[in-house]
Amino acid sequence: MAFAHTHAPEPWLSILIPVYNVSAYIGPCLDSVLAQSADDPGIELILLDDASRDDSWAQVEAYAARHPGKLRLLRHPDNRGLSAARNTLLTHATGRYVWFLDSDDMLLAGAVAGLRDIVHRHQPDLILCDYRLLDDTQPSQSRRKSRMQRTHTGPSRRCMDDPVTLLSGLLTCRQPHAWSKIAKRPLWAAAPFPEGRYFEDIAVLPSLLAVTRTWWHTATPWVAYRRHGSSILATLNEKKFHDLVLASELLQQGLSALPVAAHPKVAHALEYFQLRTFCNLAVQVKTLGPEFDRICRQSLQRIFPHGTRHAIAYCRRRGWWLRAWRAQRKLAQAGWLT
């Protein structure tokens, strides 16, 4: 007698959470996800322990025991970093869409329902969501007043297939992080994160956008992003400095290779993105010494062949007078105004 083989339906969404030393935050993160996904069999939730040294993973295991069959747990025997953790998680994901969520952040109410509606109605390759900033570095009164941050200039709430608008809107908002971009799994598979480096979200952006054909911006905050003292940007050491410069160069090379790179809107937006990045570096470079100043000057020559004043002039043409003034002041103080 022949027996028919039955297969579980493919999940429509994989939520992937790397975990490393987030004892104070993993509970609220999981609460926010499970509150919206526990009753949906079409969502798989996969977590990976990147060799945490605190009780983060013990908390995850306790959640898994309270929600049997809902959490899939993976482990790295040694700490390999965020990029490696995300890459491992992706190889185990089976959902049509993939959403990377950092374990110190949270999903806001209605996020999964909003995503589900867009996916079922329109099936875009890429969905961009806005977020709320929770700043733990500020006093409690300021922290309660969380700010909404846009990740794209729009248009919003409609399915688009215009790569010029996609790139220019993303670069102008300067929000490259992976957790605000929910994409079909093959798109993320085409954009593996560079292991052993910081600022991996910037480096993979060209690969992700190169395979995106349709996209949607929600103009709705779905993620609560937590900024705290141990965040990557809180202390820009030598390793992070090197990696940020490298990520900026990879972004320049990758986006410049795209067919729409020569479009004025894309070219100006990329120049603006890089201008803001090097303004941030200009503030830090004095604390790191002359070798890092030399590295930045070389990178500036490659990224701004027409000089940094050209990018500042674009800000003025857009009416961004204060941004232009701040950029000119920071670059002049570092001796990078060319």
How would you describe the overall organization of this protein?
The chain is of the alpha/beta class. It has 2 domains: 13-233, Alpha-Beta Complex (Spore Coat Polysaccharide Biosynthesis Protein SpsA, Chain A); 235-334. The protein contains 13 helices and 9 strands. The chain has helices spanning 26-37, 56-66, 82-92, 111-122, 140-144, 163-173, 185-189, 200-210, 238-256, 264-284, 290-303, 308-317, 321-334; strands spanning 13-19, 43-49, 71-75, 97-100, 106-107, 126-135, 147-149, 181-184, 215-227. Strands 1, 2, 3, 4, 5, 6, 7, 8 and 9 form a 9-stranded mixed beta sheet that branches. α2 links the parallel β2 and β3 (71-75). α9 (238-256) runs parallel beside α11 and α12 runs antiparallel to α13 (321-334). The longest helix is centred in the C-terminal third of the chain and has 21 residues, at 264-284. It is globular, with a radius of gyration of 21 Å. The model is unreliable at 1-6 (pLDDT under 50).
Q: Report the C-alpha radius of gyration, rounded.
A: 21 Å
Major sheet size, sense and barrel closure: 9 strands, mixed
CATH superfamily of the largest domain: Spore Coat Polysaccharide Biosynthesis Protein SpsA, Chain A
CATH domain fold name of the largest domain: Spore Coat Polysaccharide Biosynthesis Protein SpsA, Chain A
Strand content: 15-25%
Counting DSSP E segments of at least 2 residues, the number of strands comes to 9
Weakly predicted, low-confidence segments: 1-6
Based on CA inertia axes, which overall geometry fits? globular
CATH architecture of the largest domain: Alpha-Beta Complex
Secondary-structure-derived class: alpha/beta
Helix content: 40-55%
What's the CATH class of the largest domain, please?
Alpha Beta
**Total domains:** 2
| Intertermini distance | 79 Å
Global mean pLDDT: 93
Keywords: Transferase
Region (Disordered): 139-158
GO molecular function: hexosyltransferase activity
Protein name: Glycosyltransferase involved in cell wall bisynthesis
